[in-house]
């Protein structure tokens, strides 16, 4: 019985090898095509609250409703009001607010507990207020300004200072004035604000402002660029507690029925 020389057994046909290679390449192409198709058809709203699929006007309405029903919010950013630019950092609740406003000329703290409004600023701020810049009729009084500086001054409800700044402590009033968009609404751009997925509303092709609305949980407004370059505001900490306490008596100055122009 003769031995079979090595390599003398049956060999696969060349055509069979080519068919195998083509089958492997074909399978790879099918897998790649399926993956690409999956990416192309990925739903940008998968795992969200579904607000991004709604018409722009409905998104805006839901964002406004969410803001109105929230008990608290933290606002930060820049706001242009009556020709003045304010840097805003306020925590607002239904029954009051606390935070800080900064202008080109001064910075000061605001605290409102119920109807009582307190303003804390340095002596230079009060010197300006008493010099008639708010419509008061008094003159500059360094002694009075020093008395008020660094203290929580209880602002009389009839004083121009109260009327000028109380709106910054009123959640409903402030949100109503800020959240207005002007012009035809469009929506679709997706992004993030502080790590939260959002859908952006654009009004008037951008000139009427933009509003980023949360795609996670409640559709709160999270970032607003106001129309006419009137500032950019972030809205955060919706529903979180705001610590509102009347200042200690030794930190409060009750200046009577009038602050502006006093002295």
What does this structure look like?
It is a single chain. With 263 residues, the chain is α+β, with helices and mostly antiparallel strands. Strand 7 and strand 8 (196-203) form a beta hairpin. The termini are far apart. The chain has helices spanning 14-40, 56-69, 123-133, 142-148, 160-165, 171-178; strands spanning 72-81, 84-93, 96-102, 107-113, 116-120, 152-155, 185-193, 196-203, 210-214, 221-225, 232-236, 252-254. Helix 3 crosses helix 4. The chain has a single domain (51-254), classed as outer membrane lipoprotein receptor (LolB), chain A. It has six helices and twelve strands. Strands 7-8-9-10-11-1-2-3-4-5-6-12 form a twelve-stranded mixed β-sheet. The protein is 28% helix and 30% strand. Mean pLDDT is 82; it is low at 33-38 and 132-139.
In short:
This protein is α+β, with helices and mostly antiparallel strands. The protein has a single domain (51-254), classed as outer membrane lipoprotein receptor (LolB), chain A, CATH 2.50.20.20. Helices cover 28% and strands 30% of the residues.
Number of β-strand runs: 12
What is the radius of gyration?
32 Å
Strand count, sense and barrel status of the largest sheet are: 12 strands, mixed
Strand fraction band? 25-35%
CATH topology assignment: outer membrane lipoprotein receptor (LolB), chain A
**Helicity range:** 25-40%
Number of domains: 1
Broad CATH class: Mainly Beta
| CATH architectural grouping | Clam
**Tally the helices: what do you get?**
6
Structural class determined from secondary elements: alpha+beta
| Low-pLDDT residue spans | 33-38, 132-139
Q: Termini separation (Å)?
A: 130 Å
Sequence of strands across the biggest β-sheet:
7-8-9-10-11-1-2-3-4-5-6-12
Kindly report the average pLDDT value: 82
């Amino acid at each position: 019985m003769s031995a079979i020389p090595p390599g003398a057994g049956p060999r696969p046909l060349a055509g069979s090898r080519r068919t195998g290679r083509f089958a492997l390449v074909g399978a790879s192409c099918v897998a790649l095509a399926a993956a690409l198709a999956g990416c192309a058809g990925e739903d940008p709203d998968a795992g969200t609250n579904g607000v991004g699929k709604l018409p722009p006007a409905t998104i805006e309405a839901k964002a406004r409703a969410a803001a109105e029903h929230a008990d608290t919010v933290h606002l930060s950013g820049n706001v242009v009001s009556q020709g003045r630019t304010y840097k805003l950092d306020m925590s607002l609740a239904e029954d009051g607010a606390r935070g800080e406003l900064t202008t080109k000329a001064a910075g000061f703290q605001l605290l409102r507990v119920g109807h009582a409004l307190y303003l804390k600023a340095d002596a230079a701020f009060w010197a300006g207020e008493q010099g008639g810049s708010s419509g008061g009729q008094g003159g500059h009084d360094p002694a009075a300004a020093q008395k008020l500086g660094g203290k929580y001054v209880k602002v009389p409800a009839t004083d121009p200072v109260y009327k000028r700044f109380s709106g910054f402590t009123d959640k409903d009033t402030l949100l109503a004035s800020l959240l207005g968009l002007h012009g035809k609404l469009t929506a679709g751009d997706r992004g993030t604000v502080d790590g939260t997925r959002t859908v952006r509303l654009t009004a008037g092709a951008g000139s009427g402002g933009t509003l980023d609305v949360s795609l996670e949980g409640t559709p709160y407004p999270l970032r607003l660029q106001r129309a006419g370059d009137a500032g950019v505001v972030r809205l955060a900490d919706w529903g979180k507690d705001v610590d509102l306490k009347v200042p200690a008596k030794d930190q409060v100055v009750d200046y009577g029925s009038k602050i502006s122009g006093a002295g």
